[in-house]
């Protein structure tokens, strides 16, 4: 049973990794390359270098990805990660296939800011899915991890520095307008990715003060398959004995629990807070 559950979790993780990587490849192929946006990442490096050298952009991005993977294994060893390798290979392969099957040479619209918004949204969702599965898409993430290892910078600041430098190259390769859009895109994408990552891991924490703890506990354990902690308490105003239940559940389970508590004990006092991450059985894994 445990092995089957582990296999199911691995399958879900790799499915999410695949979807997230394909979303990033799609936005690079449809929005980033045709517009010349260089909002960081190996795709931004490839777009700028392709403009300077006249090389095919998709081929150059794939080559840079593979090169950075090799550098990552040299400087980082196994910490480079099998999942990062998987995402890098899927990204490179899908970008190559898209360039052959459905080439996009011109921007879809004449509104660069609209296309930048689409690019940032797709990147944030795709990157959020990948980071949620404890992986990276490779590329400049590997450079950031190397900088973290050999400098005082943490990964977030190192990645922002690398992506900012890549975005600045748009000024020289594509002009002031595209350069400004690329720099703005770097900062907006960084904030949006953080929001997406937190939304994937967010849960609802319940504090329930009730005189009917057994029925509520039964629902939590048997219907939601969640755990709970019960503490005996005494009401300060009424001086009556009560029970205080603590439990955590996913957002989609929170509405069911709230309605059930109201049905069981309309006088129950409930405090619901949002937690950005829960570590432990049934939630995120300890690293």
What does this 3D model show about the protein?
This protein has 287 residues and is an alpha+beta fold. The chain contains ten helices and four strands. The protein has a four-stranded antiparallel sheet with strand order 2-3-1-4. Helix 7 (155-174) packs antiparallel against helix 8. The longest helix is centred in the first third of the chain and has 34 residues, at 2-35.
If strands are numbered along the chain, what order do they take across the biggest sheet?
2-3-1-4
User: What's the β-strand tally?
Assistant: 4
Helical stretch count? 10
Into how many domains do the coordinates divide?
Answer: 2
Question: What distance separates the N and C termini?
Answer: 23 Å
**Low-confidence parts:** none
Structural class, please? alpha+beta
Reported for the largest beta sheet, the result is: 4 strands, antiparallel
What order do the helices and strands come in, and which of them pair?
Elements: H1 2-35, H2 41-53, H3 57-76, H4 82-101, H5 112-132, H6 140-150, H7 155-174, H8 176-201, E1 203-210, H9 213-222, E2 229-234, E3 241-249, H10 251-264, E4 269-275
Antiparallel strand pairs: 1-3, 1-4, 2-3
Helix pairs in contact: 1-4, 1-5, 2-3, 2-7, 3-4, 3-6, 5-8, 6-7, 7-8, 9-10
